Amino acid sequence: MSSKVLVALRIKAPPLRVFEVFTADIGAWWRPNDLFSFTPRSPGVLAFEGAGEGSRLVERLPSGKVFEIGPVRVWTPGERLVFGWRQATFAPGMDTEVEVRFEAVGPSENQETRVTVEHRGWDTVPIEHVARHHFPDGVFLHRHGEWWRDLLEGLRQALISPSP
Q: What is the pTM of this model?
């Protein structure tokens, strides 16, 4: 069994557009969270370096250093994105994975996208680990799920009122 977070949100935009904003503009809509930072020096700015499988999700820190959060394993524009997710304090084997699905909902003239995030593999990170804050499984997954809901709301807001 794998400990995972599963959240979904509808966004009033076609799947390809939502995918593009998720990947190309992640640095603009991503909302850092003190509980779930990638490095002790976070927050930095997130970015996908490159596009496609084999590219990577990184955090660019104010110092100029770049921390690799994870490699992109699946890159299917408008449909699916899968990438590794690790924090600087993770030991080898403590790798989690994020899968994001973009599903069209409704007629094409008024299309929405159901964005579903599944963040799995938390059973590889012990409860005592700093990334989990000693929270029991249920509490940790609930808190992490709340953060992913906030992140998807930030994505929705970026699509509703894009920056100039």
A: 0.91
